[in-house]
Amino acid sequence: MKMTSRAHWEGSAPPTDSGADTTAQEIEQTLAQSRVSAEQRIALYRVWVVSAVGLLSLWPFLSGGSAFSFIVSSVYVVYSLGVLAWTRRRMPRRLGEVTLLVDLVSMAIFYMVLGRFDVSGESPRWTLNILPSLMMATLLSNFLRYSGRFAIASSGVAAVLFLTVMIAQRNFHPGQLSTVAILLLSGFIAASSGARARQNLDTFARLRLLRRYLPKVAVERVLEDPRAGMALGGRSVTVTLLATDLRGFTSMSEKLSPEEVVRQLNAYHATLLEQVERHGGTLDKFIGDGALVVFGFGAQDTPDADHGAAAALACARDMLEGLERLNGERAQAGLPPLRMGMGVHTGPVVAGNIGVPGVRLEFTVIGDAVNTAARLEGLTKEAGVPVLISAETVARLLGPVLRELPAMRVRGKDEAVRVFTLP
User: Which residue intervals define the domain Guanylate cyclase in the entry (predicted)?
Assistant: First the structure.
């Protein structure tokens, strides 16, 4: 099996490519789901607030005052319940913006005309005192949305409506400007909060998308610097490579249905991946029934770094143990056991992106070390052992004592190479 390290994603950094489009779609889908949940919560909060105001308006009516405020509050409770029911059945695109404007304008109109129905000819003082509080509570709903422009615009509308009502009912007073300033400030705070939330969702969606196609080290590069992480180029690093292959599965799969082939391969890969993650390896890619795992990406600058040799060896041991457990389960199901071969080698590689920006890029580990690991894996059949380890890897190990085998000829090498296996 020829091993080359390939991890795919479509597109690159410029906003016109398919990768950026896919990421943008993921972000918008995440935002849309969040907006639906937010509008449902806001609709519920509206019912609570309007119901509380309705109860407050009941007291003047029972005390012999006008029933107008209580009637209007009751109507608005019904409206709020209707909006809540609507959000749970469907979600019109502009429902949040429309309901917020309806809330603000309705408050202003209510307080402007309330005096005409009151015995005193003026709006009751208690209603004017809670007007800014109600407007502020309404504007706070923008914290759950992600539209910065609308947050600022709605706070401006609230400020204008509040000042209009105050002047019409009580004449202008400089103290009213402080409330106006607070209303305006809430809009900018909501806009900033929405921008931060959107940025967080952007990172989340990008991370979720990249993890589907890229190895962990590539994801970290992209998150640190999206354009540099998805640009052409690479760097030379020394790593330990673990190449694996499943023995005899091709002939075995000829007797199985396609669905059963995929099911058994998935169970096998899941067993391997559990150990790769446990030992901090980077799964480059599953290639059919084989895989290439890279260790040591994060230890390049450490003076005594083993470049992932110890982790790769421990992972190889645990992979074999995991395969034994899987074979136990297969035996109970009446399935034949699986056998695997592994080659472990440490050496320099070039890690980076190759391809055509905007069309296709691959995060790739290339070099003679990759080929050597793959060829050692192939030689396990000839050596009759499940794991072959190169002398370059063994030289970086301190603790384990390995069993040396007779030197073997490796394709591409002029001389026979020293090889080791597990004791």
Answer: 240-377
